[in-house]
Amino acid sequence: MPSPKPRGRAVSPLAIYDGPALHDSLASRYSVGRILGDGNFAVVRECVCRKTREEYALKIIDKTKCRGKEHMIESEVSILRQVSHPNIVSLIEEFHTPTQLYLVMELVKGGDLFDAIASATRYTEKDASSMVRDLTSALDYLHQRSIVHRDIKPENLLVVEYPNDSKSLKLGDFGLAVEVTEPLYTVCGTPTYVAPEILNESGYGLKVDIWATGVITYILLCGFPPFVSATNNQEELFEQILRGSYEFHSPYWDDISDSARELIVQMIQVDQDKRFSAQEVLDHPWVSDDEALDRNLHLRVSHKLDLHFDTNGPQHKAAGITLMAQVTALDKEKHSLCRESEFKDPTSPPCSPRLSLFTNSSQVF
Ligand SMILES: Nc1ncnc2c1ncn2[C@@H]1O[C@H](COP(=O)(O)OP(=O)(O)OP(=O)(O)O)[C@@H](O)[C@H]1O
């Protein structure tokens, strides 16, 4: 059965474009409007195809900001060109100038994973299970093609809302995605979601995405992350991750099903060989059968998400993404850049607002 059309496809008048001059054929085919979000190297704007009046997202990547990292843009685009899956944001077409790369992408209007929880009135284990199923379906598809995403986090999971109030997830931001042909050693990712084998530089592969999915599943059920430094100390956070040391804190986990906990244990597994594959996650009864409970967790989870993450409006989100980008590539150079900035400007948050908020408020457990 074809899936229902997403909500909100009616064409709204676009705000006047005030950015740098656009590629000629892009400008002749699309009218470009307001900013939807931004990152370190890219701005994402809404746009409308002049011919069909269909809305899209336009990701404008500033090549001049990516000197020395051109291979990352090439990798992002070449992977996006290859993939086609209902839970992955699709690339429609691309335009190049010497300084800019324009990617016309499917528009996803429902905000990110945390927005979806915050805006719901009812939110249950079943909703969380369906989000995990969507994410893992995308990962299973990528992993079967030996592609690792390497930046699985709530900000990169965009939500499609349908008229019958159902939702589905689309995975975006393939900026760190690569094809795995041999063990990888580049230290990258986002601290809360980073797998131990990335930190200990022992060589890693596809399973780092499953670790991050385990961390997200944990957060989806209680509103705070499994690994937190009470003193906002990144070394301490990494120690916990390396040991795989986390708990299902009472009372927050008292009402959560054993099945959900059991699945999380299989995903947040330090030993990569013992850690579930995407297919094993999809086959787990909490995801595939009826073991996810129907109890409303909304008040409790959204309250904790507010305390631990920056779940405010788009302007906060945009700021969060900009800063998050400083730690996105956690290679040693960037890692120390992030730590330097902690000390240079005492008024700015240490890393991303989301990151710093959860580490600062970990004592609320
Ligand atoms: N297809 C889309 N539809 C709607 N909004 C989108 C879409 N793609 C991206 N966005 C918005 O733009 C933001 C930035 O996009 P994206 O993460 O792809 O950029 P980036 O520069 O690669 O980010 P980062 O520096 O964090 O890696 C997203 O967090 C989201 O809010």
Task: State the name of the first-level CATH class of the largest domain.
Answer: Mainly Alpha
Task: Give the count of helical stretches.
Answer: 14
In which range does the helix fraction lie?
Answer: 25-40%
Provide the β-strand percentage band: 5-15%
Strand order of the largest sheet: 1-2-3-5-4
Distance between the termini: 44 Å
Backbone CA Rg = 20 Å
Instruction: Please tell me the total number of domains.
Output: 2
Mean pLDDT: 82
Silhouette: globular
Show unreliable segments: 8-13, 313-365
H/E series: HEEEHEEHHEEEEHHHHHHHHHH
The major pleated sheet works out as: 5 strands, antiparallel
Per CATH, the architecture of the largest domain is: Orthogonal Bundle
The CATH superfamily of the largest domain is known as Transferase(Phosphotransferase) domain 1
Strands, total number: 9
What class do helices, strands and sheet pairing give? alpha+beta
Bound molecules: adenosine-5'-triphosphate
The CATH topology label of the largest domain is Transferase(Phosphotransferase), domain 1
Short description:
Keywords: ATP-binding, Kinase, Nucleotide-binding, Serine/threonine-protein kinase, Transferase. The protein has 14 helices and 9 strands.
Can you walk through the features of this model?
The chain is α+β, with helices and mostly antiparallel strands and 365 residues long. The chain has 2 domains: 24-106, Phosphorylase Kinase, domain 1, CATH 3.30.200; 113-317, Orthogonal Bundle (Transferase(Phosphotransferase), domain 1), CATH 1.10.510. It is built from 14 helices and 9 strands. The strands form 3 sheets. Strands 1-2-3-5-4 form a 5-stranded antiparallel beta sheet. A two-stranded antiparallel sheet has the order 6-9. α6 packs antiparallel against α8 and α6 crosses α11 (298-308). The longest helix has 20 residues, at 125-144. Mean pLDDT is 82; it is low at 8-13 and 313-365. The structure holds adenosine-5'-triphosphate (ATP).
